[in-house]
Amino acid sequence: MKPLALVVEDEAALTTLLRYNLEKEGFRVNEAADGEEALLKAKEETPDLILLDWMLPLISGIEVCRQLRRLPETKDTPIIMLTARGEESDKVRGLDSGADDYVTKPFSPAELVARIRAVLRRSKPETFTEMLAFEDINMDLSAYKVYRSGREVHLGPTEFKLLRHLMQNPGRVFSREQLLDSVWGHDVYVEPRTVDVHIRRLRKVLNEKGEKDLIRTVRSAGYSLDRSSPE
Predict the structure, then answer these.
(1) Residues with Cβ < 8 Å from 102, sequence gap 6 or more?
(2) What is the pLDDT of residue 115?
(3) Do the Cβ atoms of 166 and 217 come closer than 8 Å?
(4) Which of 2, 51, 80, 92 gives a 20 to 30 Å CA spacing to 22?
């Protein structure tokens, strides 16, 4: 089962952004808009990660963090605090309340994802695996395995790297030349049409049980991974 992240944030737009980036990293996501709801959700289903806003209605993020640390279910759960307060004294307060890390708003999604990975590697080195997910495709980067709808998909090294690159950039269209540079490398000469051969192989294995084709061919442009039907 995918790891669960609890997002505790009262700004709807930021919650949507966090959900998108967490799901892209292979998490399931629960949401809470205030401190009381956060404590309730954490008790109902223990999360593997908590993103906790400092300024929350009803109960402050600092107090929520303290209470989460007193609960047996979440005493060891990684907590990253999100706040617009950037003073060193505020950071110390957040860490003293039990947070594992502290990210100041505004932040880039890439920075937050890097912090999440670092916190999980420190807290759960024996269980944490780097995952990518898109629709019903899950990629375990540490175990070098791919699953579709729960079944394992066996890919060759080049197809694995090709799929990884597409899953890291869903919706973006890459030309054959860009894929050659990213997957094969700048110093290797390969005919651009070689990309087409590997895309066909990747499609065949991913869709062998009749699943929807998620790799879109964009005429005169290249390929992308998205939810649209292929052209």
Answers:
(1) 80, 81, 83, 91, 94, 95
(2) 85
(3) no
(4) 92
pLDDT of residue 128 exceeding 60, the answer is: no
Say if CB 152 and CB 145 are below 8 A apart: yes
Neighbouring-strand partners of residue 222: 218
Q: Which domain holds residue 192?
A: 131-225
Segment 84-102, tens digit of pLDDT:
876 667 667 778 888 898 8
Mean pLDDT of 151-172: 91
Strand partners, 5: 29, 49
Give the phi and the psi of residue 105 in degrees, each rounded to 5.
-75, 150
* Nearest Cα to Cα of residue 157 among 213, 215, 201: 201
Stated as kind and residue range, the H or E segment containing 177 is helix 176-179
Of 81, 100, 123, which closes a domain?
A: 123
E strands present in the chain? 4-8, 28-32, 49-53, 79-83, 101-104, 131-134, 137-140, 145-148, 151-153, 215-218, 222-225
Same domain? For 65 and 153 the reply is no
Report the distance separating Cα 71 and Cα 43, nearest Å.
Answer: 8
Q: Which residues pair with 90 in a beta bridge?
A: none
Q: Is the pTM of this model over 0.85?
A: no
Same domain, yes or no: 56 and 84? yes
Check which CATH number belongs to the domain holding 43 and give it: 3.40.50.2300
